[in-house]
Automatic annotation (TrEMBL):
Gene3D superfamilies found in the cross-reference section: NAD(P)-binding Rossmann-like Domain (3.40.50.720)
Function: NADP-dependent dehydrogenase with broad substrate specificity acting on 3-hydroxy acids. Catalyzes the NADP-dependent oxidation of L-allo-threonine to L-2-amino-3-keto-butyrate, which is spontaneously decarboxylated into aminoacetone. Also acts on D-threonine, L-serine, D-serine, D-3-hydroxyisobutyrate, L-3-hydroxyisobutyrate, D-glycerate and L-glycerate. Able to catalyze the reduction of the malonic semialdehyde to 3-hydroxypropionic acid.
PANTHER family: NADP-DEPENDENT 3-HYDROXY ACID DEHYDROGENASE YDFG (PTHR43086:SF3), VERY-LONG-CHAIN 3-OXOOACYL-COA REDUCTASE (PTHR43086)
Protein name (record): NADP-dependent 3-hydroxy acid dehydrogenase YdfG
Keywords for this protein: Oxidoreductase
Pfam families reported in the protein's UniProt record: adh_short (PF00106)
Single annotated GO MF: 3-hydroxypropionate dehydrogenase (NADP+) activity
Stated family: Belongs to the short-chain dehydrogenases/reductases (SDR) family.
InterPro entries attached to this UniProt entry: NAD(P)-bd_dom_sf (IPR036291), Sc_DH/Rdtase_CS (IPR020904), SDR_fam (IPR002347)
Domain of life, source organism: Bacteria
Group of enzyme by EC: oxidoreductase
EC number(s) given by UniProt: 1.1.1.298, 1.1.1.381
Catalyzed reaction equations: 3-hydroxypropanoate + NADP(+) = 3-oxopropanoate + NADPH + H(+); L-allo-threonine + NADP(+) = aminoacetone + CO2 + NADPH
Length: 264
């Protein structure tokens, strides 16, 4: 019987991360739960041990803190039992671009992009050498939506999508599965934490439904999983157009429409 991989989940104290923890424990996986709130992590860990009989390790870490991030990188690099990384921890943004302080910008980018990148890097070599392993990056449909006015947040999520597609290109030939999960509005604390009134949000998905759908994509080894997207062809068309654009842009001369004319 194959031994199930241990799953390390960031942002596991509540919301999407805590739901992933329940689902992987239900599947029989041992867990490493990472977040800042030790008490909430301990309570969740005790429930999951009791309910599912799995080993659950708690690792308190602030992923915007370099020392904590380095400690987590070392755990990921050195603990060969960890075969699945769920890069979930993240925060949203309230207020316009011009309202963001330098500290808020730094924190948002560190948590939403630097941390998942460094954690993925911490496992990439070990996973590739073993010819196995999975990296799940939690993005957002806001990556497609500059219209939403969450410019820095959306940019971090566009980064996560590209990171996932790039990791897939580099690591899937070596047996490593990479998944980008793009939720839309989901009922968690992220809204309150960002100072956004959740009651102003329409069409908000239950977190259990989101994670269960994301796991269907995971089990199918899908690269980009967008649970709220009912018309899957929309994504296929968008990514197909992107690939089509790539085939057009290797040119030695600028496009006709950019040719300076003496009339201008
Ligand atoms: N909810 C939604 O509508 C959507 C969410 N997403 C994405 O899903 C992911 C999870 O979000 P969601 O569950 O909704 O959010 P929640 O705010 O409910 O949970 C966020 C989790 O991240 C942890 N976290 C926050 N800051 C830090 C930090 N500095 N260091 C370590 N852990 C931290 C929190 O734990 P603690 O405070 O204990 O550290 C918590 O466990 C995020 O990446 C988010 O961008 C994407 C699209 C939609
Ligand atoms: N977290 C949500 C916005 O703040 C989202 O990604 O939809």
């Amino acid at each position: 019987m194959t031994t199930l991989s241990t799953v390390l989940i960031t942002g596991a104290s509540t919301g999407i991360g805590a739901t992933y923890a329940d689902r992987f424990a239900r599947r029989g996986h041992d867990l490493v739960l990472v977040a800042r709130d030790q008490a909430r992590l301990d309570t969740l860990a005790a429930r999951l041990r009791e309910q599912y009989g799995v080993a659950v390790d708690v690792l308190r870490a602030d992923l915007t803190n370099d020392a904590d991030l380095s400690t987590l990188e070392a755990r990921l690099r050195d603990d060969a039992r960890i075969g699945i990384l769920i890069n979930n921890a993240g925060m949203a943004q309230s207020g316009g671009f011009a309202q963001q302080s330098a500290e808020a910008i730094e924190r948002l980018i560190k948590l939403n992009t630097t941390a998942p990148t460094r954690l993925a890097a911490a496992v990439a070599t070990r996973f590739a050498e073993s010819g196995s392993g999975a990296i799940v990056n939690i993005g957002s449909v806001v990556a497609f939506a500059p219209e939403f006015g969450m410019t820095i947040y959306g940019a971090t999520k566009a980064f996560v999508l590209f990171l996932s597609q790039g990791l897939h290109q580099e690591l899937s030939p070596k047996g490593v599965y990479v998944q980008a999960v793009l939720p839309a509005s989901t009922r968690t604390e992220i809204w309150e934490r960002a100072g956004i009134d959740i009651n102003q949000i329409t069409d908000i998905m239950d977190v259990n439904e989101l994670v269960d759908a994301a796991l269907v994509g995971f089990d199918r080894r899908e690269l980009v999983t967008i649970p709220p997207l009912h018309v899957a062809e929309r994504w296929d068309a968008l990514d197909g157009a992107r690939q089509g654009l790539m085939s057009d842009i290797r040119q030695t001369n600028a496009a006709e429409r950019y040719r300076a004319t003496n009339k201008e």
